[in-house]
Amino acid sequence: MIAPRRFLPSIPSLLALEAVDRLGSASAAAEDLSLTQSAISRQLKQLEEQMGVDLIARDQMRMQLTPAGAGFAKEARAILTRLAQASVKLRANPDGGSFTLSILPSFGLHWLAPRLKDFAAAHPGITVNLHTHNLPFSFDAGTAQAAIHYGTRDWPGVEYLPLMPKHVLPVCAPGLMDGPVSSPAELLDYPLLHLETHPDCWEQWFHLHDVPAAKLRGMLFDQSSAMTQGAVHGLGVALLPDFLAENEIAQGRLALAMEGAAVSLGEYFLVWPADQAEEYPLIKFREWLLLQLEEK
């Protein structure tokens, strides 16, 4: 239930408060909002009277918010941002058939994105907007209604749809070694490339092959795409998802560093907040994803 109107400030007053907090002065806020300084002052005074709280510390030369005002401005900024994003989404999709999916760059761009054309054809009234992330985030603070997650069920406050295991292959530039090594332990003689968000992948891989390995060193990359380029240019051996490694191998840019089946180091999930579960676009996207997994 929405609060009584007396607790709902006007948008102009919230914009004035947010601008003063962000820019530090009434003159800068006025220029930012294309208003006069007196208009900014009136909006702030009106807001204080409505809330019954002092928001501005007026005993200083430089306009500064009180601690209560600064906290309220932070909340107002988040609300105004979400309202602006909702307005943009409404204009772009007047039928309301859209949602934002936050994706892991490697999985989203190399596995999911090539298949989205099929979703668009099957559901022309639904638009999927894509953002990227590397680590779990708060759905409350962001704009996404769902996300792709890798690892285990360690993202708090969400529901999960298991998608597939993450199968990885050790790959390197064709010229880095004479040919694939014959045993996993031999890879310890080569430089190993690591992913910042999952720095223990090599330790897990060696453990699954019964090879003692700890505190491994090597170059660190923030994304799989950057690590892939590092491997292509001969910087070392990388553990890449099979859907990414196989494409690079087919193009001759990378080669297997060791023969054998891909090893699973975790699982991909679709995750979403419980209060988004019954949103029509998300329901249709989940149903479509399940069909894709059956066909892959």
From TrEMBL:
Tell me which UniProt keywords the record has, alphabetically: DNA-binding, Transcription, Transcription regulation
Q: Name one Pfam family in it.
A: LysR_substrate
In terms of superkingdom, the source organism counts as Bacteria
Q: Which Gene3D superfamilies match?
A: Periplasmic binding protein-like II, Winged helix-like DNA-binding domain superfamily/Winged helix DNA-binding domain
Domain HTH lysR-type: from-to ranges: 9-66
The record's InterPro entries line, in alphabetical order, gives: LysR-type_TF_proteobact-type, LysR_HTH_N, LysR_subst-bd, WH-like_DNA-bd_sf, WH_DNA-bd_sf
Q: Which PROSITE patterns match?
A: HTH_LYSR
Enumerate the PANTHER family for this protein.
GLYCINE CLEAVAGE SYSTEM TRANSCRIPTIONAL ACTIVATOR, HTH-TYPE TRANSCRIPTIONAL REGULATOR
State the family named in the UniProt similarity comment for this chain: Belongs to the LysR transcriptional regulatory family.
Q: What is this protein called?
A: LysR family transcriptional regulator
